[in-house]
Amino acid sequence: MLTQLQKDSIKKLYGDKQYDMQISRYEDIAQCFEDKYGKDYIFVSASGRIEICGNHTDHQHGRVLGAAIDLDTVCAVKKEDGKVVMDSEGYPPVVFDTQKLDKVKSEEGSSTALIKGVLKYLSDKGYKVGGFVALAKSRVFKGAGVSSSASFEILIGKIISVLYNEDKITPIELVFAGHYAETEYFGKPCGLLDQSMIAMGGINYMDFIDPANPEILNMQPDLSDYSVMLINTGGDHSDLTHCYADVKIEMMEVAKYFGKSVLREVDEKEFFQKLGDLSRKVSGRAILRAEHFFSENERVLRAKCGLERGDNQTFFDCLNGSGESSYKLLQNCYVGGEVAQRIPLALFMASKMKGVVARRVHGGGFAGTVLIFVENSELENLREKAIEVFGDENVYCLNIRNQGAVSF
Q1: Alpha-carbon distance 9 to 289, whole Å?
Q2: Which of 121, 217, 325, 344, by CA, is between 20 and 30 Å from 386?
Q3: Residue 368 belongs to what H/E stretch?
């Protein structure tokens, strides 16, 4: 069913350890597609992502450090004249006319909105867009901070790039298409981090001081002595949009006090000098969240420099500092009034485990995941303890994915 070229592409993308599992996965997708829609299709894959450092800094034009991971959304896809058919496992098919790409208020929060938004952006930028039929399956779990929505957005952009534009749409253009779809059509405020890490692949340092032209540095540090673990602690962030919106709103309230649009434009020394008057104009939480931004923005720079010179200890110290700041200042480890507190529980567990060198809340927070770096020799012990607390289905040992969105 799979060609040798496809098998070779799968091996290159996932490596030897996952090869057999991924071959089975792709054969299943291929069989399902052929049964429903026929042959003459290609595969497209877009990953999830991890945020390594830089929690809630991107929407304030700050710095971030993150990476693509080997959990991905995969589809078999071919052209379809005049309409889109997106058949995603676990969801009813999305079907619409490609001539009707205007935003529809009632579609906010849906997959339809994301697809239409990506196509609308690319069309407005002069790219050719058209219909397709796709059957997708995803290992990027939903609502837990590894960016299932951004993975889907980049997947759609890559489909349009390959099917209609000779695969000439650049990764950064895919980033902006996904961001536009999520903010304007889907209705969720977000920065550019998620889409960027997925579209670029690898480990990336990004500085959004100029959001229209972010500085991007792809990095390949030697972290071979350490493994990455992601624990889905439970909860779904899909109904917590207001929590993420409040972070951005409160940070921008502080920026506005200083006559600026974002915190990157505010001088931290002046911020502290005027703390008294500021405290009478904005909430204490807004001030703490602003201080998180200032310290986190510099922390990302130190982490990046540590990686560049092979100083892994500085890198891990910065990750731990990011976790502490997110917990105490940004306050996104749980929703106010919540007693389950699964993210704090995971952080506590990790702090007691041998070989753990860094731990932090991951992504937007409030629900979802914790990111842990652990010495390879202690990975299995940590995995067993994490499974004991959170269940086998919620513990992931990850690899960094060097490729962005791909087709074959």
Answers
A1: 44
A2: 325
A3: none
Cα R_g (the chain), whole angstroms = 21
Question: Comparing C-alpha atoms, which of 381, 101, 99, 368 is closest to residue 237?
Answer: 368
Between 240 and 152, the more confident residue is: 152
* Residue 110 burial (CB count, 10 A): 16
Q: Are 152 and 181 in contact (CB under 8 A)?
A: no
Instruction: Give backbone dihedrals phi and psi of 47, rounded to 5 degrees, phi first.
Output: -85, 175
What DSSP line would sit under 205-270, residue for residue? EEE-SSTTS-EEEEE----TTEEEEEEE-S--GGG-HHHHHHHHHHHHHHHHHTT-SSGGGS-HHH
Question: How far, in Å, are 108, 162, 247, 363 from residue 173 at the CA level?
Answer: 23, 14, 27, 23
Q: What is the CATH class of 226-398?
A: alpha beta
Q: Both tokens of residue 112?
A: 């339809």
pTM of the model: 0.83
Q: Which of 295, 152, 144, 114 is nearest to 233 (CA)?
A: 144
Domain 4-220+402-407 has CATH 1.10.620.20: no
Q: Where does the chain hold its CATH 3.30.70.890 domain(s)?
A: 226-398
CA distance 103 to 107: 8
Q: Name the DSSP letter for residue 400.
A: B
Q: What gap in Å lies between CA 61 and CA 107, rounded to an integer?
A: 29
Q: Angle at CA 200, nearest 5°, toward 199 and 204?
A: 130
Q: Mind listing the pLDDT tens digit for each residue in 43-72?
A: 999 999 999 999 999 899 999 999 999 999
* Portions of the chain given CATH number 3.30.230.10: 4-220+402-407
